[in-house]
Model the fold of this input.
Amino acid sequence: MTNAADKYSSIRLDNQLCFPLYACAKEVVRLYRKPLGKLGLTYTQYIVMMVFWEYGGMTEKELGKIVHLDSGTLAPLLKRLEKQGLVIRTRPESNENKLYIALTEKGEKLKEEALHVPEEMSGCIRLSGEELTSLKNLLDKMMVMMEETK
Done:
């Protein structure tokens, strides 16, 4: 027989995986503010810029798929990056519905300045290299599994 306390254990904050994930993500983003402030980027803009530095130009849809953001979130972010002179957005005449985004020369040069960010962040999460690798692998596995359920 279960008592009243057991009945509600599934909705106790201490028993949730989502809460520590949320709290840690929020804290990590907060820690990124200082090094990213030197680049004039928000955390989400930094993620988008890393994608462009790695893969080059692409459509907004392709970018959204990689960074798990929808057009409603990406559109204003890309407009701000364009206003900063870091990207250029174009619509091909052949398909006006597609939005293609590419780095400008200024955006490409920012890549060099961004090299300090991982260095500054390296001491912020005090886990061993093995623990960090393990955590990243588990989170990657979770993302794949969640994508499969969409």
